Amino acid sequence: MTLKVKRLFPEDLPLLEECAELERRFLPEEAWSVESFRSESAKENGYVLAVFDEDKTKTKNIIGCLTASKILDEGELTTIVVAEQYRNKGAGRQLLQALLKMTGKISLFLEVRESSSAREFYRKNGFTEIGKRKNFYRNPEEDAILMKLSFKEEVC
Ligand SMILES: CC(C)(COP(=O)(O)OP(=O)(O)OC[C@H]1O[C@@H](n2cnc3c(N)ncnc32)[C@H](O)[C@@H]1OP(=O)(O)O)[C@@H](O)C(=O)NCCC(=O)NCCS
């Protein structure tokens, strides 16, 4: 598997549609619409990154995507998803590393469901837990854990 990350822009509409489809399948409770992906990709400080498996020859070859935004030296990671069959092969980490290369030195924040196994993924990538928001999520109702990656603790 050869992984490659690309930042998407509004003109990459078919790829933005693939990202929306990926979220509908693998992150249905927080899936963004195609329009949300498009408008984020149009912002100077909005990031939509997709990771591809270059060894795949099919047209539909996005295996994961990430959305984030940046204000001054702080960023927020809003979503990250990797297709189930490609997990634990480094695609999620590559997306994070590519984001931090593009944003420069920032502190990166995120919220994650308390029960989500993604908390371990974030910990393994240098994030620490800094707080909790009570009943932040709906369907089902659940607390959010706030996590932070300081720019000194870059992804290894
Ligand atoms: C979270 C997610 C994006 C991780 O992507 P991934 O490509 O599987 O992650 P990587 O292969 O880069 O893993 C990096 C490290 O995190 C660990 N890791 C990844 N997912 C993990 C999980 N669910 N539980 C425990 N550890 C995990 C890996 O084992 C690896 O550890 P290592 O450094 O010791 O080898 C993916 O599991 C996913 O899409 N989950 C569903 C969507 C979701 O919950 N997103 C987060 C909320 S927005």
Q: Which short descriptors sum up this protein?
A:
single chain, about 160 residues, alpha+beta, Aminopeptidase, seven-stranded mixed beta sheet, 4 helices, 7 strands, binds coenzyme A
SSE-based structural type: alpha+beta
CATH topological fold name: Aminopeptidase
CATH class: Alpha Beta
Total of domains: 1
What integer value in Å does the Rg equal? 15 Å
- Summed over residues and divided by their number, the pLDDT gives a mean of 93
Helix content: 25-40%
Largest sheet: 7 strands, mixed
Proportion of beta-strand residues: 35-45%
The H-and-E topology, N to C, reads as EHHEEEHEHEE
Fourth-tier CATH superfamily name: Gcn5-related N-acetyltransferase (GNAT)
Tell me the span between the first and last alpha carbons.
Answer: 20 Å
Bound molecules: coenzyme A
Strand order of the largest sheet: 1-2-3-4-5-7-6
Shape: globular
**Unreliable stretches covering 5 or more consecutive residues:** none
In quaternary terms, these chains amount to single chain
CATH architecture: 3-Layer(aba) Sandwich
Beta-strand segment tally: 7
Total count of helical runs of at least 4 residues: 4
